[in-house]
Amino acid sequence: MRNMTRNTQKGHKAKKSLGQNFLVDPNIARWMVENAALNEDDVVLEVGPGKGMLTKEILTSQCRFLHVIEIDKTLAPFLEPIVKTSKNRMSVIWGDVLTINLKELSPPPTKVLANIPYNITTPLIWQILEHLVPLGTRELLLMLQLELAQRLCAKPKTKDRSPIGITIEKMGKAQIVKKVPPNVFWPTPKVESAIVHIIIDKDLKLASDHTWRRLLRVAFARRRKTLANNLSCVYDFFKDKDKTSKLLDDLKLPTTVRAEELTVDDWHHLYEFISKID
Q: Are both 213 and 256 inside the same structural domain?
C-alpha cells in the first residue's frame, strides 16, 4: 500500500476545499464494480472520479455508457486519456455536480457508482433521488463516511434516524455492504468509510414532493423537541393540543413521541394527513 500511495500522489495535490480523498486501492474499485452487477443495458453515473481508479474499473464491465462528473479540471491529464480509450462509452462533464442539471444526462443513468466527497454527500443524494430516480436510476452503490452511511440506514428509535434515511426507506432500501478502512485513500482521512447499496423500487417521485420534504424538515428541526412541538411551529393544526392529542392517538403514537421514533408507516400516515390540511 505504501508504494501504491506514493505513486498516486504524483502529479496532483489533493484539494482539501473539495473534500478530495482519492481511492488508491484497486481491490476496492474492483469489489464495487463486481457488486454493482453491471450489464449491457446499464448507464452509469460516477461523481468525483479523481484520478480514475473506479472509472477504469467501471469501463471493464459490460455497461453501455458512463457519465463522469468532476469539478477539478486539474485532473484532466488523468481522465482525458481514459476517455480516449473508452471507445465512445464515456463522457466527462466538468463542473459542480450540485449545480449541473442531472436531468439532462443522456442516456439517463440506471445506476450510480461513486466515491462521493464527504462534504457534498447529503445534498447530492437528495439530487439523485429527486432528479434521476424518476428518469430510471434504480441503484446506487456509494462510498461514504461511515457516520453518514449509518444515518442512511438507521432504524426507528435510533439517534441516527434522518429525513434522507426515511425517504430512502419509503422509496426502497439501503444497506451497508462493506466497511472501508482509511488507508485505502490518499490523503488518508481521519474517519472510517463504508459502501452503501441503495435500491429504489417504489414511490419514485417522493423526493420531489414538497409536502413530504417540508414535513420531515420541520419534524427534525429540533431533535430534542417532541414531534408535536416541532410541527406546531409551522402547521396551525398542531397548535391545538386537543386535536393534536387525538390525531396522535389515532396514529397510535404517544404525545411525547419524537421524530426519530416514527416508523416509515407512521410517516406515511402523517404525510397523508398533512397533505389534506397543508
A: yes
Q: Is 119 annotated as a binding residue?
A: no
Number of domains in the chain: 2
Give one DSSP letter per residue of 185-248, joined into a string: EESPPSS-EEEEEEEE-S-TTGGG-HHHHHHHHHHTSSTTS-HHHHHHTT-GGGGSHHHHHHHH
Q: Would the annotation count 72 as a binding residue?
A: no
242 is in an annotated binding site: no
pTM score: 0.92
Residues 219 and 270 in one domain: yes
Q: Are 46 and 67 in contact (CB under 8 A)?
A: yes
Any known ligand binding at 183?
no
- Position 93, amino acid: I
Domain housing 199: 2-204
Crossing angle, helix 163-171 and helix 264-277, to 10 degrees? 100
> Which CATH number is 116's domain given?
3.40.50.150
Per-residue pLDDT tens digits for 223-275: 999 999 999 999 999 999 999 999 999 999 999 999 999 999 999 999 999 99
Annotated binding residue 265: no
User: Cell for 109?
Assistant: 443513468
